[in-house]
Design brief:
Structural class: mainly alpha
Largest sheet: none
Helix content: 55-70%
Distance between the termini: 30 Å
Number of helices: 4
Shape: flat
Length: 120
């Protein structure tokens, strides 16, 4: 448990450092400021929302999401979440699966870096 706590604090510091040093891909000062504010606000909101978590597996998943989102942000040079392309009605009706089955498959197919956007 203490190790996970250290991992949480480490990720939090890493994200806030990223917010301080972030440079927008456009090179515009206004874009850089906006993206830095977004990173800081998003970090604080999600950590505050998840501070009551006690299940080690849930905490591990949140840590994985945070690390993944940071890697994706650096790779694509944008801090904003990447869109998820999960087509509605992607399963043919001949498979005999109804709307509930399609919704379940869509939830399962959702990438780890977008899990925290269920509330939005």
């Amino acid at each position: 448990m203490a190790t996970q706590r250290l991992q949480v604090f480490s990720l939090y510091r890493k994200l806030l450092r990223a917010a301080q040093t972030w440079e927008a891909s456009t090179g515009k000062r206004a874009d850089t400021k906006e993206e830095r504010e977004y990173i800081e606000k998003e970090t604080k909101n999600l950590f505050k929302k998840n501070q009551q978590l006690t299940d080690p597996e849930e905490i591990r998943l949140c840590l994985k999401e945070g690390e993944t989102r940071l890697e994706i942000a650096y790779h694509y040079k944008t801090p904003y979440p990447r869109p998820v392309n999960i087509p509605y009605g992607g399963l043919p009706p001949s498979m005999g699966k109804g709307k509930k089955a399609q919704d379940r498959l869509r939830r399962q197919a959702k990438p780890v870096y977008i899990k925290s956007y269920d509330e939005y």
